[in-house]
Amino acid sequence: MNATGGPGRPLVVIEHLAKSYRRGDQVVPVLEDISLTIPEGDFIALMGPSGSGKSTLLNLIAGIDKPDAGTLLVDGEDITRLGEAELADWRASHVGFIFQFYNLMPVLDAFENVELPLLLTSLGRRERRERVEMALSLVGLADRMDHKPNELSGGQQQRVAIARALITDPTIIVADEPTGDLDRKSAGEILGLLQRLNAEMGKTIVMVTHDWHAVESARHVVHLEKGELVDEAAAGSDAGQSLWKRR
Questions:
Q1: Among 83, 125, 161, 239, whose Cα sits 20 to 30 Å from the Cα of 24?
Q2: Domains, the chain, ranges and CATH?
Q3: Number of neighbouring beta carbons within 10 Å of residue 5
């Protein structure tokens, strides 16, 4: 982990990645010849218009989907070569997921939702409790751990989802429109939390977003257009602002 420092060694290395989907007899290309390196400890915003392939790229990095061609190394392992069972085990150990609509279990309270990924490990009950309490404290919800999702605000539910994403100390956190369902104040709080996780804990974050406020929270911006990598820039720089102007 590259805590407090800037981006370090290459963590995600993508070379000549391609992905297409079948729609009946038609093959629809989504990503074409994507090459990209994400350093450990970076905070990347993937952006582009609808249909540009950014969510597909996020899913490939997270091991949710497989490419048609190319290599995708995460922490030195080419995950394109893993079988389905191996990939499921890899995701459980290496990836923390944050979704736009939280994906919390409505019948479970905050503690139980955060604990879920740990039930697949060999950790005992006491150690699971300690980890969950620490994660919920980190996101400012130590006093809400016995509340169910419908008893929490949208921002609080997203904080529970972030705690769940952190609970296994993942190699990488992937966030798909994490502020898309939140009001501006709650969105700002979530983005501030993600920045803290990146700056203070060295967590590598890859985030898909349409929100320019969210883009400003990242370290770097990667812009996709029609399945191709158009540009990369430091967030907040003149180059980064020009990405928005080309949308």
A1: 83
A2: 41-63+82-245 (3.40.50.300)
A3: 11
- φ/ψ (deg, to 5) at 144: -125, 15
Burial 227-239, CB ≥16 within 10 A → b, else e: bebeeebebeeee
- The two tokens of residue 67 are 């490419």
pLDDT lower than 50: segments of the chain: 1-4, 237-247
pTM of the model: 0.88
Report the chain's mean pLDDT, rounded to a whole number. Answer: 89
DSSP string of 26-90, one letter each residue: EEEEEEEEEEEEEETT-EEEEE-STTSSHHHHHHHHTTSS--SEEEEEETTEEGGG--HHHHHHH
Q: What is the pLDDT of residue 6?
A: 57
Q: What is the pLDDT of residue 120?
A: 84
> What DSSP assignment string belongs to 96-151?
EEE-TT----TTS-HHHHHHGGGGGSS--HHHHHHHHHHHHHHTT-GGGTT--GGG
- Six token digits for residue 95: 């990836």
pLDDT of amino acid 236: 60
Residue 132: both structure tokens together: 């969950």
For the chain, report the end-to-end CA distance as a whole number of angstroms. Answer: 34
Q: What is the CA angle 149-154-160, rounded to 5?
A: 55
DSSP one-letter code for 219? S
Q: What angle do CA 59, 96, 170 make, to 5 degrees?
A: 120
